[in-house]
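Quick look at the format.
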Amino acid sequence: MPALDLLSILFAARYRPGMDQQLSSGVRQVTRPMAWLVVPFVVLAGLGALQLYVFPGETERYFAWTLRPQPSATFMGAGYAAGVVLTVLSYRRQPWATTRIATYTIFVFVCAMLATTLLHLDRMHLHSNIASARVAAWLWVLVYLAITPALGILLVHQLRQPGSDPPRTRYLPGWLRLALGAEGVTMIVAGIVLFCWPSQSDRWWMWSITALSGRAIAAWLLPIGWAGLQAVAENDLDRLRPAAVTYTLLGAFWLIALARAGDEIRWQRLTAWLYTASALSVLAIGAAGWRLALRDHRQPHSMP
């Protein structure tokens, strides 16, 4: 069964109006191998979201390593849930110009998480006495060892395909580009600091973190920040729509996780309030972009 047909079954995907015209006019489409690779990613990310966001207290038995306290697990679970939403919404629509925000974001994430895994193999449940934890750890390591180079190869193959991007017709307003850019830079800087100095970061982070959990959190901050900056570079509301929906839900997931965390959050630290403000801004920026993207296509924005 062709990969795009399988995606249609899984995601109820349909070509957008005008897809036939795009195919005949030389617009670059997603390759079938790339579409195939999305399917296991969505399935595994969905399982990760279920495990970490819904059952954060069971990581000792059912996850690759033990995550304590629970806010670390729910933060990662929110990232997996958002990744599922971004990927499914992006791959429901063609062409490549619409799906590449999701694809590049996934690639940044899997590279960062693979590096985190290899740096902390001694913390994985690879030799746990609990069979479910041991299976989860080995599956985790093997999946990231396989999917990271595979996605890199398919990205090179994708970029070598003939065709061009459809013209931009609905540009982002200047204030939205500024907000997305500021949010993206902030997250990337925070991600770099957490990844490079995870042990020292516990001194200022809003809940207790280990070197492993700090780098795992960084592995999510980096792609989320990348997605914001890439949305600025794409500068098109039609291409932004999947990312805007995802941003909205991600902000909501983070806020719900904060409410669930209770006294595990170090509210006496300024960073706890900055994190809350960041979650609110992600929710607001995403909702604003979503609303703008849904406006009548007959009223395009002018170039800022």
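Next, a different chain entirely:
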Amino acid sequence: MRFHYTELCTTYSIVARDPNTGYLGGAVQTHQMGVGRLIPIMVPGVGVIASQSLVNQSYNPMALEMLQQGIAPKDIITALTASDAGASRRQVAVLDNTGAVTAFSGDGCIREFGHHEGDGYSVQANMMTNTTVIDAMRDAYENSTGDLAQRMLATLQAAQAEDGDIRGSQSAALKVVRGERTGRQWESVYDLRVDEHATPVDELARLVTIRRAQLVDQDGHRLLAEGKLEQALDTWREARRITPEQVEPAFWQAVTIADSKPSDDAVAIAAGIFNTVMTGHPRRAEWLDLIGRLGENGLIARDGAADELLSAIEENERGTA
């Protein structure tokens, strides 16, 4: 045996750039634990690398350095593979912040393998059960809608629908970063991992939905800070619609409205939001206690806001009983 199994990261993946937002992203699934620690690798405003098959981990730092220097993906692939005696076993895709992309599949990869370079994206796979995986991934990405994360997720789902990895499924990951260089490499829009799961792509889909709701929720907070109360309330309703099972966003919506008091009826609105998700919740009493603690701690800063909110919540509940 000429390799150790932990080097064998055979998988299917996508790297992509959203032409509307400039966001960069990548997503992956494999039958090995914790694929997200290896794939995808990216830096905001720089680019994305997906290095798979018998992974050469030195590809990642070398490719990122060359991307930061403005070297084209096709030249990066040439440099990586030319200096690697094991290149025939590698599969790698490199995408820059303009959407230029190049992929490589060595002829020593385990079949079924291949890749497709599209407009601002690349899909690649190896050790697939069927030859249909690459075409399915291409079609899914090009015909899907939604934000970059949703489109990449659809690509993984299409690969899995064709039976994906011949060994089955175990882990998955999806990441999206901004398209401009911020100097804050740790920041991401989506950074989701399913390290061990019987159906990791399905679990990743659940996490993508929750994260998308968080992003909508953040938009609501931004709108409120800009003094746009009605728009904020509409946006928050949409966030709650996306993930009605998530109670914490609604809690902080209520607290934020009560604390900032953007209108005369703000506290009553906040109480209604709280009771919408908390009535009948098994930890309702604990969430109510937390409001008081936030007031004590100063995180609800307006004098009397915590007590006002607690009273309004009780009154609202009596009114809807």
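The chain is about 45% helix and 20% strand.

See the schema section for token definitions.
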